[in-house]
Amino acid sequence: MMKARIIRIISNRFTVLTENGERKVAVLRKKAGRAMVPYVGDDVLVSENGSDVTIEKIEDRKNCLNRPSIANVDQALIVMSVKEPDFSYTLVDRLIFLISYENITPVILLTKTDLAEEEETEKIRKEYETSGYKVLTNRAKEEEMRGVLSGKVTVLCGQSGVGKSTYLNGLDPNFDLPTQPISYALGRGKHTTRHTELYEVLGGWIADTPGFSSLDFAPVVSKKLAKCVPDFQIGESCRFEDCRHIKEPGCKVREKVESGVLSKIRYEDYLEVIPLCDQIKEWER
Ligand SMILES: Nc1nc2c(ncn2[C@@H]2O[C@H](COP(=O)(O)OP(=O)(O)OP(=O)(O)O)[C@@H](O)[C@H]2O)c(=O)[nH]1
Ligand SMILES: [Mg+2]
Ligand SMILES: [Zn+2]
């Protein structure tokens, strides 16, 4: 048996990188991990029999995201264009919530800054930097990106057409990932990247992922989400330990939103997802 990490999945073929640095294409042993579906980023044990490589076991994950599906990441770059498609606070905030909920650090990456006025980009940057988020743009220099990516596993998250693959291509001249103008007409489907894959770049690993069109809050436990939103880490406790920061008396978060200390945008986006949460019962999880 050998330790390996899954770096690419295309239907039922799993490309793994073994501990001795070899790439091999493996299949999944039926019983491996029982009902567990392997994700890119999973640490696995593989066996070799001649040229057949089989995944025998999936190790426990330190975290995982479902959209895009990936396991064991250190940070997520939320990729959002300032134009084409238009920048959406709601979408970025929903991604922040789902990513933080899985105990992954969100970082914001603004793309297509050439398509907007400088002030527009700066306004967005300010909104998130004021709340304590790291904000990058597609103009970030290699030096800065090395600082962000080196020694870490990073996943790119964002809707289709925001420029995830284009951005990766710019990080390493050896990359030639397919990219495509977004087509609103033509009905030929606008998802260019169709699988998740980890690439080695600037001293770390980064995953390109397919864009998605919806996010799922049904399995999210709202009381847990209330504790995960980075904006709400204010170093003060609400009166009730399980406060969801909605209308509870003695809620410090709401107080700080009302006095303008915390972002109203993020808070309103938070209130909007609360009714979407808690749709899956404990025993069904
Ligand atoms: N003007 C401009 N266009 C860009 C920029 N980045 C990407 N694009 C264009 O946006 C379109 C979509 O880019 P992709 O890189 O394919 O987008 P993606 O996020 O990988 O999309 P999916 O793979 O479908 O999820 C392409 O036509 C790119 O050339 C940018 O910084 N400026
Ligand atoms: Mg792509
Ligand atoms: Zn509260």
Please state the structural category: alpha/beta
How many beta-strand runs? 13
**How is the biggest beta sheet arranged?**
6 strands, mixed
Radius of gyration: 20 Å
- N-end to C-end Cα span: 31 Å
Mean pLDDT: 93
Overall number of structural domains: 3
Continuous helix count: 7
Beta fraction? 25-35%
Name the overall outline: globular
**Which kinds of small molecule does this entry bind, naming each only once?**
guanosine-5'-triphosphate, magnesium ion, zinc ion
What is the share of helical residues? 10-25%
- Reported by name, the CATH topology of the largest domain is Rossmann fold
Brief overview, please?
This protein is 23% helix and 26% strand. It is α/β, with parallel strands linked by helices and 285 residues long.
Task: Please give a handful of descriptors for the protein shown.
285 residues; alpha/beta; OB fold (Dihydrolipoamide Acetyltransferase, E2P); Rossmann fold; Ribonucleotide Reductase Protein R1, domain 1; 3 domains; six-stranded mixed sheet; five-stranded mixed beta barrel; 7 helices; binds guanosine-5'-triphosphate; binds zinc ion
